[in-house]
Design goal:
Layout lengths: L14 E9 L7 E9 L5 E5 L3 H4 L3
Antiparallel strand pairs: 1-2, 2-3
Bound molecules: zinc ion.
Length: 59
């Protein structure tokens, strides 16, 4: 996984990484760990799921 160092939108380097959990759309009560990279200049955020299997494989 590559680290995000620049905002994809405004190219700012003021990126803050936050650990978040994203609720699943398919399974109620299930959360997926993810890294959120938030631009402090424009507010643009990108989410990177830690385990991609979660998003593609049905349980
Ligand atoms: Zn930005």
């Amino acid at each position: 996984m590559s680290k995000v160092t620049k905002c994809a939108k405004c190219k700012s380097e003021k990126i803050q990484m936050k650990e978040v959990s994203v609720p699943s759309i398919l399974e109620v009560g299930r959360n997926f760990p993810a890294d959120a990279y938030v631009c402090l200049d424009c507010g643009y955020a990108e989410l990177y799921f830690r385990e991609l299997d979660y998003t593609t494989r049905p349980h």
